[in-house]
């Protein structure tokens, strides 16, 4: 195996990993404030894919042809915003319908889990009924496979640059938001100690709701980007969702930077194992890596807790 | 503590950046060069040869007896939802059409009903879907299941219940040697397809990358091809990628890096269409072939321009190009407002063969009698003469080759034509 191949698969791993990271952030944010695994988050991702696809389709038709650079950028941003909006809305509704009523009645944690799984099953079947179960595709409006630059003979294509670039931008944005803004302060306060935060004047309901929306925005945008290079389908969230959840645990669930690191790492390990061993084994290797990490660091690479993050 | 976390968090991007720099520093003279290879476009289309049997419409073999007022149900069992529902829909529609035509012809001494049971294409759901039909006493025969994996899972129950099933498209060779007493199929098994695909690959390529989707069907077919090519000088690289995969970029990159003349994907259209996109993305331009599971317009819809030049081996006849299937094509279009797809004609043949067999039964139609009657059936179908060997295998075994030309699926001919 040459260095070129290694670099090529590193690029693939970074692309896949940055999507995992974006989704993982949704799990981790919600876990931070509620200590709840939002298993319906994979459906937030799916809704983002559909939202983005529908907007692009409505604006450009099913086969739009290649657009100029300025227009393509415009539509790309628009699609991403539409995906994010769809994801954010889904997450908001989810919190309202599936979690808040339980929270108000002080339901046990297990009830949340069942509610999450129920919401997930409902959502993907609903999407399947509504928009057909056939795979669908985001119309291509720019040359996705255009090589942008070479690193040791390994080409990075436009779509990869777009995905990695925007994912990193969003991650930095989220990191800053949580670290510096008032909302971020609220999120961290609720994560550390909700009752005390309430005493200090933090509106817990609002903060939790906004945390869901924040995770939904990122997950939805990831859904659109995923749809651009793969497909949009009612069950598209399942595998990426599980992987991203694993990534969140790997990095330290509840820890924002942990989710980013976990996502990237999982993407890289999957792709590296594909070249070093066999594609068939990539999931096995990825999860063996997960177990190994958790054996030596049970709280994940960067440790648990949202509140602690700088 | 806080400081420590920060350092750790900062460390990761730094390590990442170092990796990238390491990559960036190296020279780039190692770009993969294109090799001389045949592409799908180079395989000229041969005039559609007659692989089909005699033209027939609805079966009229029935003894023109008076209608006894009895009603029997012919069911379709297979994927109508899930990841790959298109084959199932193609087949279910054809069964429905055959039942309707038989009733409209009015020559049968009984009335037929149609029902379906959806197994979502998932082997773990197939037994329950089969049980639903077994529990319905009016069901005397089943068309399906379409997939080999679901067939293997559903057949034990069907066999125990003595309920006939005729699959239009389950092609795993082992299915007819499992001791299932009521399993028949109107399609040649994968060994026939695999042998012919291997012969084609041998003609066009010196090195082959063989990828299966790890399903019952894909793996079985790839095993046959690998075995066939194993005795030749052709270099075969074999790999499996789960059919649940949504990101084929790493396997596509491996195929590209291997610098092979041809790639054969054994699997279904959904995986194939994503794989095709990824192959195009990494710049693979040599021959890409797949099988009957991919030979569907849904593949082109998914892969779009990446579908161009792909070839498919298929034991199936295409109703849209075979002039003998004209009346079937028209009737299907009127009924469902869509073209018949892959395995629609085979499914139509399966249903009609069952109906023809049922019409020979005297007295009440029972499940046992239907099984016995089907063993003796000799029905001139659209795709072939439907006549079963004792193990449930159909007698005629022709393999067709299709290709994607200018965004459309066309018949390139039979393998016998192409290997001339």
Task: Describe, in short, the structure shown.
The complex is a heterodimer of chains A (310) and B (420). By secondary structure, chain A is mainly α.
- Unreliable runs of chain A: none
Structural class of chain B: alpha/beta
Question: What overall geometry of chain A do the principal axes of the alpha carbons give?
Answer: globular
Count the beta strands of chain B. Answer: 14
Any idea what the shape of chain B is? elongated
Mean pLDDT of chain B: 85
Number of helices of chain B: 13
Total of helices of chain A: 11
What's the end-to-end separation of chain A, in Å? 40 Å
Beta-strand percent range of chain A: under 5%
H-E order of chain B:
HEHEHEHEEHEHEHEHEHEHHHEEEEH
Largest sheet of chain B: 7 strands, mixed
Going across the major beta sheet of chain B, what is the strand order?
A: 7-6-8-9-10-13-14
Coarse structural class of chain A:
mainly alpha
Helix content of chain A: over 70%
Account of the protein in words:
- The complex is a heterodimer of chains A (310) and B (420).
- In chain A, 57% of the residues are buried.
- Chain A is globular, with a radius of gyration of 19 Å.
- Chain A has eleven helices and two strands.
- Chain A has helices at 3-34, 41-60, 69-104, 109-131, 158-180, 182-192, 194-199, 204-229, 238-251, 256-276, 282-296; strands spanning 147-151, 154-157.
- Helix content of chain A is 73%, strand content 3%.
- The longest helix of chain A is centred in the first third of the chain and has 36 residues, at 69-104.
- By secondary structure, chain B is an alpha/beta fold.
- In chain B, the strands form three sheets. A seven-stranded mixed sheet of chain B has the order 7-6-8-9-10-13-14. Chain B has a five-stranded parallel sheet with strand order 2-1-3-4-5, with helices on both faces.
- The longest helix of chain B has 24 residues, at 2-25.
- The relative contact order of chain B is 0.16.
């Amino acid at each position: 195996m040459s260095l070129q191949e290694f670099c090529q698969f590193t690029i693939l791993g970074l692309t896949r990993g940055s999507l995992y990271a974006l989704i993982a952030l949704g799990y981790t944010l919600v876990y931070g404030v509620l200590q709840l695994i939002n298993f319906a988050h994979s459906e937030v991702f799916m809704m983002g894919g559909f939202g983005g696809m529908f907007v692009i389709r409505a604006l450009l038709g099913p086969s739009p042809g290649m657009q100029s650079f300025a227009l393509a950028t415009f539509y790309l941003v628009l699609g991403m915003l539409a995906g994010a909006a769809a994801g954010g809305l889904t997450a908001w509704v989810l919190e309202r319908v599936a979690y808040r009523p339980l929270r108000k009645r002080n339901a046990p944690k297990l009830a949340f889990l069942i509610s999450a799984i129920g919401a997930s099953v409902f959502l993907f079947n609903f999407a399947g009924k509504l928009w057909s179960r056939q795979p669908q595709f985001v119309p291509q409006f720019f040359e996705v496979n255009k090589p942008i630059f070479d690193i040791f003979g390994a080409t990075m294509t436009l779509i990869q640059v777009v995905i990695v670039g925007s994912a990193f931008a969003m991650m930095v944005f989220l990191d800053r938001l949580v670290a510096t803004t008032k909302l971020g302060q609220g999120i961290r306060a609720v994560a550390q100690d909700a009752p005390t935060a309430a005493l200090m004047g933090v509106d817990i309901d609002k903060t939790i709701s906004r945390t869901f929306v924040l995770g939904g925005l990122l997950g939805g945008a990831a859904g659109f980007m995923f749809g651009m290079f793969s497909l949009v389908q009612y069950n598209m969230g399942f595998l990426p969702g599980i992987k991203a959840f694993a990534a969140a645990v790997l990095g330290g669930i509840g820890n924002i930077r942990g989710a980013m690191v976990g996502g990237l790492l999982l993407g890289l390990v999957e792709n590296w194992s594909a070249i070093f061993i066999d594609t068939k084994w990539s999931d096995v290797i990825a999860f063996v890596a997960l177990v190994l990490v958790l054996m030596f660091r049970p709280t994940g690479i960067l440790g648990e807790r949202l509140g602690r993050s700088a | 503590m806080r400081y420590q976390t920060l350092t750790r968090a900062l460390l990761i991007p730094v390590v990442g950046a170092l990796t990238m720099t390491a990559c960036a520093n190296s020279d780039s003279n190692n770009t993969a060069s294109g090799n001389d290879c045949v592409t799908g476009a180079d395989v000229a289309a041969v005039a559609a040869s007659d692989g089909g049997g005699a033209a027939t419409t609805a079966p009229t073999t029935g003894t023109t007896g008076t209608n006894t007022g009895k009603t029997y149900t012919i069911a379709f069992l297979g994927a109508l939802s899930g990841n790959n529902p298109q084959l199932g829909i193609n087949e279910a529609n054809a069964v429905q059409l055959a039942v309707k035509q038989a009733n409209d012809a009015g020559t049968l001494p009984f009335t037929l009903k149609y029902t379906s049971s959806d197994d979502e294409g998932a082997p773990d759901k197939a037994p329950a879907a089969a049980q639903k039909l077994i529990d319905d006493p009016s069901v005397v025969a089943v068309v399906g299941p379409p997939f080999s994996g679901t067939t293997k899972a559903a057949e034990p129950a069907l066999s125990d219940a003595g309920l006939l099933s005729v699959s239009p498209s389950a092609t795993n060779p082992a299915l007819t040697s499992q001791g299932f007493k009521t399993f028949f199929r109107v399609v040649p098994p994968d060994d026939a397809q695999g042998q012919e695909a291997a012969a084609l690959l041998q003609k066009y390529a010196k090195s082959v990358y063989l990828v299966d989707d790890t399903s019952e069907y894909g793996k079985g077919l790839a095993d046959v091809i690998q075995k066939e090519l194993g005795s030749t000088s052709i270099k075969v690289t074999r790999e499996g990628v789960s059919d649940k995969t949504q990101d084929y970029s790493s396997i596509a990159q491996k195929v590209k890096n291997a610098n092979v003349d041809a790639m054969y994907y054994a699997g279904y259209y959904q995986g194939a269409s994503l794989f095709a996109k990824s192959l195009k993305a990494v710049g693979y331009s040599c021959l890409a072939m797949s099988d009957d599971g991919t030979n569907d317009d849904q593949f082109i819809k998914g892969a779009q321009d990446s579908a161009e030049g792909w070839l498919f081996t298929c034991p199936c006849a295409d109703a849209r190009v075979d002039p003998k299937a004209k009346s079937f094509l028209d009737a299907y279009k009127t009924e469902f407002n869509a073209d018949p797809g892959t395995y629609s004609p085979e499914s139509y043949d399966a249903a009609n063969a069952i109906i023809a067999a049922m019409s020979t039964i005297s007295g009440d139609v029972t499940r046992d009698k239907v099984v016995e009657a089907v063993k003796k059936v000799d029905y001139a179908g659209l795709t072939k003469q439907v006549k079963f060997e004792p193990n449930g295998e159909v007698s005629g075994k022709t393999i067709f080759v299709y290709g994607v030309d200018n965004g459309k699926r066309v018949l390139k001919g039979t393998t016998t034509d192409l290997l001339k």
